[in-house]
Amino acid sequence: MTGRQVRFPLSGQVSRRSMLAGAAAGVVAPVTATVLGGGTASAAPRDRGKPGDGLLRRVTVYAEELPSGLYGYGLQPGKATVPGPVLEIWEGDTLEIELVNNTDRRLSIHPHGVNYETTSDGSPLNDSFNEPGETRTYVWSTRAPSEGPGGFWLPGSAGYWHYHDHALGGEHGTEGIAKGLYGALVVRREGDPLPDRQFTVVFNDMTINNKVAPHVPVFEANLGERVEFIAIGHGNNFHTFHLHAHRWAENRTGYLQGPDDPSRVIDTRDLNPGDSFGFQVIAGDGVGPGAWMYHCHVQFHSDGGMAGVFLVRNADGSMPEGAQEALDRYHQHSGGH
Amino acid sequence: MTGRQVRFPLSGQVSRRSMLAGAAAGVVAPVTATVLGGGTASAAPRDRGKPGDGLLRRVTVYAEELPSGLYGYGLQPGKATVPGPVLEIWEGDTLEIELVNNTDRRLSIHPHGVNYETTSDGSPLNDSFNEPGETRTYVWSTRAPSEGPGGFWLPGSAGYWHYHDHALGGEHGTEGIAKGLYGALVVRREGDPLPDRQFTVVFNDMTINNKVAPHVPVFEANLGERVEFIAIGHGNNFHTFHLHAHRWAENRTGYLQGPDDPSRVIDTRDLNPGDSFGFQVIAGDGVGPGAWMYHCHVQFHSDGGMAGVFLVRNADGSMPEGAQEALDRYHQHSGGH
Amino acid sequence: MTGRQVRFPLSGQVSRRSMLAGAAAGVVAPVTATVLGGGTASAAPRDRGKPGDGLLRRVTVYAEELPSGLYGYGLQPGKATVPGPVLEIWEGDTLEIELVNNTDRRLSIHPHGVNYETTSDGSPLNDSFNEPGETRTYVWSTRAPSEGPGGFWLPGSAGYWHYHDHALGGEHGTEGIAKGLYGALVVRREGDPLPDRQFTVVFNDMTINNKVAPHVPVFEANLGERVEFIAIGHGNNFHTFHLHAHRWAENRTGYLQGPDDPSRVIDTRDLNPGDSFGFQVIAGDGVGPGAWMYHCHVQFHSDGGMAGVFLVRNADGSMPEGAQEALDRYHQHSGGH
Lengths: 337, 337, 337
Hints:
3 copies of one chain form a homotrimer.
Chain A: E1 4-8, H1 16-21, E2 28-35, E3 56-65, E4 71-74, E5 86-90, E6 94-101, E7 110-111, E8 135-141, E9 146-147, E10 153-154, E11 159-164, H2 174-178, E12 182-188, E13 197-204, E14 207-208, E15 218-222, E16 226-234, E17 240-243, E18 248-249, E19 265-266, E20 268-270, E21 276-282, E22 290-296, H3 299-303, E23 307-313, H4 323-330
Parallel strand pairs in A: 2-3, 3-6, 5-12, 13-16, 15-23
Antiparallel strand pairs in A: 1-2, 2-5, 3-4, 6-8, 7-11, 9-10, 11-12, 13-14, 16-21, 17-20, 17-22, 18-19, 22-23
Domain Plastocyanin-like (chains A, B, C): 81-190, 208-315
GO molecular function, one term (chains A, B, C): copper ion binding
Organism (chains A, B, C): Saccharomonospora xinjiangensis XJ-54
């Protein structure tokens, strides 16, 4: 049930050490990418290497049809998942994705938040997609904020972004997205805190990660761990993401810059198609361990199964009092009674 | 038509003085809570006591069925309203709610924005609700921002939050919310300006405070008064809240921190289920007195009756020119003509 | 295809010089307003005059029925467009709009973001509209941020706002809005960068500017030009605006205040009825020239035709490689295939 951390090096480096060694300007280095096992909890290490300076990272992504009829992206053949792996880079890095299309359908990969030329747009408009069986390279680059006009600054690339198909079944990848071709893309800025755990939550039509309760992921962490949520909206419906007993600031990181930061603090946020956001919380901080719900707050969506559990275990990893009973109740979740 | 300010002391204090006297660290003090009379205008005093330091406040809330078939929360038996009373505390305070369930249905109270253990979650998942006729205590705590990882800060609890049922009619309180079990929760930070008037606006399905025009509340203030709106979304539909002739900053308080604060200034904002926000305006500032509309800006929602009036009287409380005629027109509001 | 910059002076000034000459406190000066030709690209000059100090600007606006059955606002008789002209003033200015109703329907003009008395509300509630054939003056004023309570500041008027009918076909102008009576209103603050190009994008029900693909505007700019998008939501549906390969900060200007500004950077944003936002991008910056899509990211909306092209030409204005083919493909856009 726990995801695996997989790195795909260009030239045989497989350990974290070798990735760090490659982290110099202009040196090709592997991307840090996390495979979420079945959409559930995934351990992400604190050490993802250092912010690069024009660092080129490379990854091979496989698009495949799953036995269920869904489609997924994966970092190894036969290992596609819904959502796809978290792709994570430092602001300033460039990411080269070699997309292998192991399906019999036209498809692509289109990112949000980063830079790309029209050839890497991933859209049929720009003739940028993989034919069935085709392998194609997409290049995404990133950059720090820079001075703009009149003393204002142009935005950098750091953010909680996402990627998705833009070609399967139409001009806009509607069928590809509906069937699972999506994932999280994190671009970090130097100094951003790294999480202990990382979870991707995609509100896609009336599902979470193409599942409904009681099959929605149970995300697990231990009391006090730094947990990162990356929330993505897709499909045809509007949604609101709510997490019980935890909250975050409505800005780039979810943290405040200081005690006087005017950012709104929230525990519920609109999550509509194409939008994404992310934040970190300290699991159970101020509220204790237990089974905490996360769900769409549109009432008939939560009643219809858009609800999951964020299980905060005791600090030693043991099950807190009452949590198993809560999980048992969750596994009987139905459409309202 | 005007609401009443009611305080429920633990040990017999009933005056504002006694509340202030109790406002020392560790001392149990009554909560400041405002009963909105029929969902309409409510005077709130400038003096709500001082920011506490771990102050424990207690309040008894009664959940009751109303003659109309709606359900409401109230601060006295037989006095339940829709929306329920504004519960208002200082950041750092703890609030103990003794919820008396005077109905024959399972129900609960679930807050947004504050801290609570699983036993106070208010959800069936955590077996946290009142059976019919049962009294149960829920504890909500709050805290100031604190230093977090890497020089970032963890959010405090201050905000324009809300509370609602999470158990009547299902896992998520869908029936309870639909029928009126909701209200505003304000957590203030030391230094936050206090309002002269305070209004709760809940966009719940296709209603405002479970009413449609011409029965939606007329909120009244005098020119120059500091007026606080607390806006809450509920139900199954998406909405946009628009207030004529007044605007606010999209941040924690609705005020700017200074002339260079980059916050967006708005007069229309998404208000979707589970979301809430609040702000203060100076009534009629720069625009004069009169009958100003507030409404959902989704066209068929406003046409269908999601529209009310913010009546800004002259500074002396008299009716401004043209305002009575506007109110008369409002009382003939229908579904478009 | 290119819009025209038109100024309507009060007393015969027609050149930009004369407008600048009039830009002293208390002096009546023409409004800077841009007519968007057929909703497509419009050149806006860098020089719009200087921030005024209580400057009174005047403009005459004509509301007319179009041959298509739509309605539009225009700055000359017979020249109404959908969307209407961009009305643009400096924070501190007052704008007097003489609205000439050349139709046989009741209608009005209602602004967001600025100050107005009830007589200029534009709503039937306040008896503020034009009868068929009637001419009526509406006055909108603006102001800088000012000190408010407790060291906080009251918002100024600067922002990316909009105006629309509030009277045609009902209390809320639902028919007028549905049929095209809307436009952008920009209030700039001293120091705000001025754009080279300016585009208005209105998501109105299931259309963009009351058009669907392949008839949605192709917005054109040259590589490196400063391009301003003003995005407005209207109607009955929820939407999300996405622009390929460009992004902006979620604050008043879309720029950051500096490298540490915590504002979220985005390339997709909710755009629901009554809401509006704006931002500037450097065309093709970091991504190169080409045909970049902008579209609603709600999948069945984009498939249904809520998609257009932002054509970034080479710096010399020539067509970049592949762009004509992309435009050709766009012109065959259908409901998914």
